[in-house]
Amino acid sequence: MTQIQGIGVGRGIATGPVLTMPEPLSEPVVAPRTRDAADEKQLVLDALHAVAADLAERAKLAGGDAQAVLEAQAMMAQDPGLIEGVDERIDEGSTGERAVFDAFEAYREMLVGLGGYMAERAADLSDVSQRIVAHLRGVPAPGVPESDTPFILVARDLAPADTALLDLERVLALVTVEGGPTSHTAILARSRSIPAVVGVESAGSLSDGTVVIVDAASGTITVEPTAADLDAAETRTAELQKIASAPITDGALADGHAVPLLANLGKPSEAKAAVELGAEGVGLFRTEFLFLGSTSAPTVAQQREAYTELLSAFPGKKVVVRALDAGSDKPLAFLNDAEEENPALGLRGLRALRAKEDILREQLTALAEAQAATSADLWVMAPMVADAEEAEYFVSLAKELGIRVAGVMAEVPSLALMAPEVTAVSDFVSIGTNDLTQYTLAADRLLGSVANYQDPWHPAVLRLIKLLGDAGRAAGKPVGVCGEAAADPALAVVLVGLGVTTLSMTPAALADVRAELARTTLEQATARAAAALRTSTAAAARSAAASVD
Ligand code: PEP
Ligand code: MG
């Protein structure tokens, strides 16, 4: 038995055999063709048909949003213009593989040049090209491997396209070499309750069929477990099942101290499932997700309709909506038009909205109209706010346009350092621990090589949260957390101990966090927070908090 360590996502545990996702294919070499042109063209045509048929079949199985993406990919594989491009290159002496690679690449560049929606299809085209080349080589297509029996998926990282089809009956857990706790894989794993350990450098050495235990709570992978390890894993699984089926109550500590548990949502259609899982409202509605594909700003009417649908799902409940957070990992063509060397440090969030104030005014107007049309308690907040001056700008504009409660997200360390001034002008603060961690540790949250820095347990992050909690308490203003940190049950307790008043998370995490809060008193939460604050590394903070009874 050996153990390898990574960053755990969630609290789940799973046991099963490893199945590795194939590495992306190497680029086909430029070499003279050995078969005659007609034979080569026929081989390519057969591969194109086979890939198109496979994608069409997957589309049928997938349903929903994924179906349209896969159907479009099936059509790409049979696009006459592309086939012509491949044939021309074969006539010029190219191998079939290279001709496919070059023809798709030329088409891809053209799509990127068109920008907007077409540019977003470029990655889908590369995936089709890889599938055809794999077919010609007789190797497995890139993407999630297929198996009739359940398995633990080991991959370098997962692309959104890989995850669209992830079969939860088969995939017991995810282990990735790259990715941090806020990577796409981690967010997906949390939202679908799949145990995951990310950032496991040596995961590539696990061979297919090896039995492992993936324990997300400790971030460990036990290779070839002993009978005692297997028994312990089974006991934990039973405990977790008990938590998942426990009655739904409002979030509260063991001594009755209320900690409302809210949901992070990206679409109004996600509201129903959140309510069923016991969300007491919404703590973060990411409005930019509604408009990621748009090249022009959405109209007031379009926005009013979406916001009214959302608010109607929460009568009398709190719903915190975030103004468009465009830029960096979520660019919106109509807000981010400049080329930037470091977009995470650029004109993003409130900065981009302030530069195009008409768009912000329209969004706030649409929100105020939805507020008037429903009985939900709408709160509106701005993303990426740097200081009290920016907070005041946003809050006063929101009030001018009829928003009753307006606040800011704490994602930039400068805002936390100015917490007393900020809470003086803002109705509330919501801490976005994903970005707050990225900026405090100066580590790109999307970059696998620095994933180990993206850890909200770092005492530097906890100390900033304490500044916000203290300032909120002194000013009598609520301070919530809506980053991924709120979904980590042990950290959720520490956050409450630091003065956080509400926790917002992916709905799938609500049961675990609710259970952990229910077995901890405020006195214990405060003691755990104090112990974590005294440490100097994330790992030490975790164990210091865990060692307080
Ligand atoms: C955050 O930064 O923690 C946050 C909640 O916002 P997002 O993940 O959308 O950047
Ligand atoms: Mg953020």
UniProtKB/TrEMBL annotation:
User: Know the name of this protein?
Assistant: Phosphoenolpyruvate-protein phosphotransferase
Its cofactor is:
Mg(2+)
Q: What catalytic reaction does the record list?
A: L-histidyl-[protein] + phosphoenolpyruvate = N(pros)-phospho-L-histidyl-[protein] + pyruvate
What keywords appear on the UniProt entry? Cytoplasm, Kinase, Magnesium, Metal-binding, Phosphotransferase system, Sugar transport, Transferase, Transport
Matching entries from SUPFAM superfamilies are given as:
Enzyme I of the PEP:sugar phosphotransferase system HPr-binding (sub)domain (SSF47831), Phosphoenolpyruvate/pyruvate domain (SSF51621), Phosphohistidine domain (SSF52009)
In the Enzyme Commission scheme, what number(s) does this protein have?
2.7.3.9
Which ranges carry the PEP-utilising enzyme C-terminal domain? 252-520
Similarity-based family: Belongs to the PEP-utilizing enzyme family.
Matching InterPro entries: PEP-util_enz_mobile_dom, PEP-utilizing_PTS_enzyme, PEP_util_AS, PEP_util_C, PEP_util_CS, Phosphohistidine_dom_sf, PTS_EI, PTS_EI-like
Write down the PANTHER family for this protein, in alphabetical order: PHOSPHOENOLPYRUVATE-PROTEIN PHOSPHOTRANSFERASE (PTHR46244:SF3)
Q: What does this protein do?
A: General (non sugar-specific) component of the phosphoenolpyruvate-dependent sugar phosphotransferase system (sugar PTS). This major carbohydrate active-transport system catalyzes the phosphorylation of incoming sugar substrates concomitantly with their translocation across the cell membrane. Enzyme I transfers the phosphoryl group from phosphoenolpyruvate (PEP) to the phosphoryl carrier protein (HPr).
Q: Where in the cell is it found?
A: Cytoplasm
UniProt enzyme class: transferase
Look up and give the organism this protein is from.
Antiquaquibacter oligotrophicus
What positions does the domain Phosphotransferase system enzyme I N-terminal occupy?
A: 5-121
Which Pfam families does the record associate with it?
PEP-utilisers_N (PF05524), PEP-utilizers (PF00391), PEP-utilizers_C (PF02896)
Residue ranges annotated for the PEP-utilising enzyme mobile domain, each copy included = 150-219
